[in-house]
Write a structure and sequence with these properties.
- 2 copies of one chain form a homodimer.
- Chain A is α+β, with helices and mostly antiparallel strands.
- The first copy, chain A, is built from 5 helices and 6 strands; from the N terminus they run ααβααββββαβ.
- In chain A, the strands form 2 sheets. A 3-stranded antiparallel β-sheet of chain A has the order 1-3-2. A 3-stranded mixed β-sheet of chain A has the order 5-4-6, covered by helices on one side.
- In chain A, a hairpin with a 5-residue loop joins β4 and β5.
- In chain A, α3 packs across α4.
- At the A-B interface, α5 and β6 of A face α5 and β6 of B.
- The structure holds a DNA duplex.
DNA sequence: ATAGATGCAAATGTTTTGCAGGAAA
DNA sequence: TTTCCTGCAAAACATTTGCATCTAT
């Protein structure tokens, strides 16, 4: 069984605050762990409902909040007003195609250290950042 | 009279599409050109209404859309769900204090060129980017 | 038995749209 | 006198909250 780490993290998070293991949380976890890349709240609701039609979207929203707090999910938002989630993995930022919506991850340690230096220059204690490049991906350039 | 460039850009934009010069647009322009830094839609509505109580917030939203299209304003959004506007000036990104909301601009050509290189590597034609550093500013660190 | 979870409906907050009346060209 | 603009109310949209009911512990 894969994603043992995520399952254990959730298990511990729930136990620590006396939260319950419910059918709904199990179902949402299953679906979320299958995601590769980024999934919006709405898509997540749809996929969960395909298997468990009774689950309300409110529950999905509330559950994803818990997953984020438990460290199983990271909330991301690009420029279309919807929240997306991804499974945490090594640090990265994103390239977003504004035509097809494709999201590609990139990593650049040079930029990372430049950020630290800049924050320091301005006296900021850096907590997090957001760095997105918007453009047309290769497939969307011909026309 | 300052901001001649902005006024002329708007004038031309309006003329080109046979749009009208109205009292409301004049009023919103006056207020907006006085802004230093970033102003949210809501703050803008308040400031405009302080002088012209009759102006509707719908008009402010619609007018700012026109200003953006005319190149007099740039829309920015940080992580609090509201749209902010700034007067265009040399390219820059932002440091945002998550405690007091202070927004500081920075510029880094090294990051800019790294972005171009990365976009190229992934076959993207870069249109724009978004780069924000979130943290605590100097004044918000003591506690 | 009881703290916690669910799902519906209603509320939220920001921004947009429909429309009838009003103003600029 | 036509075309565009305004302002109100209502809609949109993603997300959150209230609450009565249900369920895991």
């Amino acid at each position: 069984m894969s994603h043992e780490i995520e399952r254990m993290a959730l298990s511990r998070y729930l136990d620590d605050r006396h939260l319950k293991r419910t059918r709904q949380r199990e179902a949402i976890l299953e679906v979320f762990l299958e995601v590769t890349g980024h999934i919006s709240s709405e898509e997540l609701v749809q996929r969960v409902r395909a298997r468990h039609p009774h689950i309300g979207f409110t529950t999905v929203y509330r559950t994803m909040k818990i997953f984020c707090e438990a460290g199983l999910a990271i909330e991301r938002s690009f420029e279309d007003g919807v929240t997306r989630f991804e499974i945490p993995h090594e640090h990265h930022d994103h390239l977003v195609c504004v035509r097809c919506g494709r999201i590609v991850e990139f990593e650049c340690s040079m930029i990372e250290s430049a950020q630290d230096r800049i924050a320091g220059e301005y006296g900021f204690r850096l907590l997090r950042h957001r760095h997105e490049l918007y453009g047309h991906c290769r497939d969307c350039q011909e026309e």
